């Protein structure tokens, strides 16, 4: 007898704090052969997730129509170029995307002077016990925990196997799977065999018509996700000691709402300030293609500066730099192409690496605060000075409205650009003045 795997909510009955599944279905192998379509429902569930909850799990004509319509709407039929011309042949569309991302992923080079200025504002480093935690050999339990923490139905990478396949067949694949992962983590085996990615282009807005209107999401293989997840799980416990209180995303003891509340308090204090002739302003900064422009040389410099062991740094650099990409456009894969900078959206490591990169903007601001060329805002006389707040990849600056602060901001952003590779996105960057002197050139 076989137990049919349930689909949907894990529990169907609740009483107080007790949860239970009451409707179990047990069949024999003859029944499963007689009704093979029960397997097809999972495929259609992946293609049309939302309606699955609303319309049930019937393999109906309506369900096929909805899933197919969604797939048709996601087709890219034409691309508008910078000069206003339009291309609509699939070959030309593919060429435009490959050209754009090949250029985007090309390094601008290493600027040691800018990197050194940013690193001079770093004060938090790893403690000796944290270094030992990162440097110890990897275990089979870490690999198992990483694998089973990945959602089974996440889209697979180029190998076609999602995490559910490995989780379901863990008893059979355990020895070979863990041996392959441990060979990479402990013995520097070749990671390029599992690291190639497929980039899916997700429209940022309805009726996206330009190459820039699409967000690249990397579909990584499950084996690579496990490697990255193991490394991310080691970074998490030490991250709090490396990130300042200005950042409120992905930290264990912080909520992103913390900085939202603090921002409201600061703006309210600035607005209601009745004394003084100094004008104040807030600058909301948005970096264009923030993940895709990160220079690997800067990642290397940061990790070594804060005290990560060399073997751990080298493993992370192998994870982010050994990749070749292929674009998935209208269901067709492009030719593979290398890239020389950037961290992938869809990589379990990327959010934690990006936090440390975004933290360096605070470090650059700290350098100019110490030189007294950039001034933050204090709500009251004995309150701490707030100069900037970070919301993952978004930044908010508080500054006085004068020529000195203006030049300092320009220098800070220039240094940040040359060190990290990130550039400001002017269309989403906003400036809001307060007080008497409201003109900031």
TrEMBL record:
This is Reverse transcriptase domain-containing protein. Residues 183-441 form the Reverse transcriptase domain. It comes from Cannabis sativa (Hemp). InterPro entries: DNA/RNA_pol_sf, Retrotransposon-Effector_Assoc, RT_dom. PROSITE patterns: RT_POL. Coiled coil: none annotated. It comes from the Eukaryota. Pfam families: RVT_1.
